[in-house]
Every structure is written in structure tokens, then in C-alpha cells.
Amino acid sequence: MSNYVFLIDQNKTPLxxxxxxxxxxxxxxxxxxxxxxxxxxxxxxRIIENPNVYPLTLKIDPGSKFTGIxxxxxxxxxxxGMELQHRGQQIKDALEHRxxxxxxxxxxxxxxxxxxFLNRKLNHGWLAPSLRHRVLTTETxxxxxxxxxxxxxxVQELVKFDTQVIQNPxxxxxxxxQGTLHGYECREYLLEKWNRQCAxxxxxDVPLEIEHIQPxxxxxxxxxxxxxxxxxxxxxxKGNKDIKDFLxxxxxxxxxxxKQAKAPLKDAASVxxxxxxxxxxxxSFGLPVRTGTGGQTKFNRIQFDxxxxxxxxxxxxxxxxxxxGFPVAGNCRSRSVSEGLTRKGVVETIKLATTKILRVKATGxxxxxxxxxxxxxxxxxxxxxxxxxxxxTGDIVRADVLKGKYAGTFTARVCPMxxxxxxxxxxxxxxxxxxxxxxxxxxxxxxxYA
Length: 450
Ligand SMILES: [Zn+2]
Description:
single chain, 450 residues, alpha+beta, SH3 type barrels, 4-stranded mixed sheet, 22 strands, binds zinc ion
């Protein structure tokens, strides 16, 4: 099952996305034409008056390396999905490279210049370029999807866990042990706080259990500050021993745990700051924006028995009716995270109507450097100004070679040359084809598609 196909009418009004089989029919009968390759969109050859569209929900799970985006119908069918791979590390590396080159140059040429560093000021709400890129690319895609699909509302995962739920003293002792929503919020919090490892022995990548630092039988409370994570072995070995007895021989471990337990967790900085910025941008689109937490996402995913993937996480963001069994959790969470969260739009189940999703990788547009140098800085060649005969480097084109050894048709990215030929790399071999034989399929837009 692949993604549903976007459909717009002649006026470019977004209509309901259609099943791939129906899209094939529309194309074969000549009623529609391909409007855009990525995301795959058809344009009808007629105008539809008063189209009967059902609004879709756009769900986003923003992550540090991948962002999952899906479109869900009111019945909970996931009809379109994508995973956007970010290039934060690439941007960071490029800036560090530039910094190193600049420092080298200034050491050579302006050695006696007075140091300047206190005359710079960051604007309020400034984000590092690598983080800002994450927000901006996600914004781009939401805007893009709005053009091709009738989006009625947006749901975004805003925070990893809801501190209000966790700190709520009304939560009784058993709730975090069983599979309730509270439990998932607490678990996410504890995983983050204790670095996803056993607090006692430091083992990683094993199932961790929630552990009372001061055992309940010795008067320990259920407050989150009295909980930590332990592997099964350590948990068993500790049993209901007092923490001071258990760690008698290891005073440094004891001190660390007691200190860490008391310290409240600072918000996981990078992810949360970008998420809030993204949230404010999404709100400016004029659509109702609802939010969810990471704990809730995980809870939904396990309730619906779905595998772990970035786009599936996106489908599980927000309130789903499986949460209804725990009304207290649902209500207090929604009020604390966002004032706008309502009961409307609750999804009964999540059904995946697609499995082959669009995988998008942010690649950037490349440099603007025209002069290519060797490693010593001597100019080697000069890149001509693009476009050449209408083609830019990185455009996806279809080549129709009519005759000769390489006769046939293929689709690839082109690097046009000023002598009128386009260069391709196909199966790691260079091929050169006259630009006259090429038809543009998708212009370079800073993303790689799979
Ligand atoms: Zn352990």
C-alpha cells in the first residue's frame, strides 16, 4: 500500500486525496495529469464547483534527526505519511569549517586587531542555525501540504512528558506501575532524567524498571523525586533495603543518586525549544492546533499495537479514544499542555492505509562558490552560471535517448554543462547526454526523495 495521491482541480483547489488505483484510472482516462512528482499530485482537467471535501488532520512528531508527518482522516485512517530527515549536523559542520577558515585567515592577516567579542547580541528567541533549519523545513512542508490537501487541523507533539501530570499529587501509588497514561508520562520523564540507564550499575539498552529510592515499606513516597530506574538484577538485589544499606560500599554512587533524585529535570533543551517555536509558527496558519506529549504518543502506539517508526509516532500523536479509559489523565494533561486542546477530533483507532511513505532528506542547495580550488587554494576550474538551457544542477530529469548504444529512458539527477550536455552518475558510472533529450521531472528544491 502506498501513499494516497493528492488531487487538485483546475483552479488548484485541494480535493480529497485519492487511492493510488483511482489515481491510475484518472491518469489513464486522461481526466487528470501529473502536477508534481514529490509529493505526488494530480491536477484534474476541469473545475469542480463546491467540492465536497472532508478535512484531514495533519499530525507532526518533530524529532532531532527525523520529523514524522502524516495525514489522518476523521475515521483515523492514515492515508499519507512522510519522514523528513534533517541536516542539523551538516549545518553545524559547515559553520565550524567556516569558522576555522576565518580564524586562520585573521591570524594571518589581522594579527594585531583588538579582540571583539562583547559587541554582539542575540535576538530574543534566537535559535542556532542547525536548530532553526529543523523548524523552517517542517514549516515548508506543512505549507506545501496545505496547497495539495484539505487540512482542517494540526496536531503536534509538543513536549516529551507533561510535568504537570507527573507532579500532580493526586496520582495514587499504583497508577504509574500499570499501563496508564500517567505511567507513560512518568516513564518518559524518568528515562530522560536517569539517562536511559540503570541508576545503580549504569547498564544501558536493557529493560528498566521503576524503583523506589527509599522503599515504601520504609516510609518512602510515590513522588517522582523518590523514583529512579534500575535494571531487573539491581531491582531484585535491592528489594526493600534502605538505599544507604544497599550502597554501603559505594558512597560516591549513593551521593550521585541522592543528588540526581533531588534535582528537577531541566527540559531537554534543543528538542523542546524548537518544538515551541514550531508550535507558534503552526498557530499562525489559522488552523486549530492541538498538542500531545511524548508519553501519550508512546501510550497510543502501544495501545494500537503499532511498530516503532517516526511516521507512525506522528500518527499516534495527540488524544486518541483509547485514552478515554483514563479520563483523569486525558483531562488534566490537556489543560496543562495547551489551553486549546478539546475533546473534538478524538480518533477511535489508527489504521494504516499506507505503508510505503515518502522519505525526504534535506540536502540544502549546495554552495554558491563559483571558483573551485585545489587543497592549496589555487583555482582549478570555474563553474558556469546556471541554469544552462533551462537545467540546474540537481534537477531530476527524464532522459529519452532515441538511438545509439545507450538508447532507452531513465530518470536521474542532472549536472548540466555549458557545452550543452548533461552529466549523470548512473550505477557509479558517468554518463553524458545532450540536454535536448531531457525533460524536467522535478526541479531541485533542496530535498532528496526516496
Ligand atoms: Zn543495574
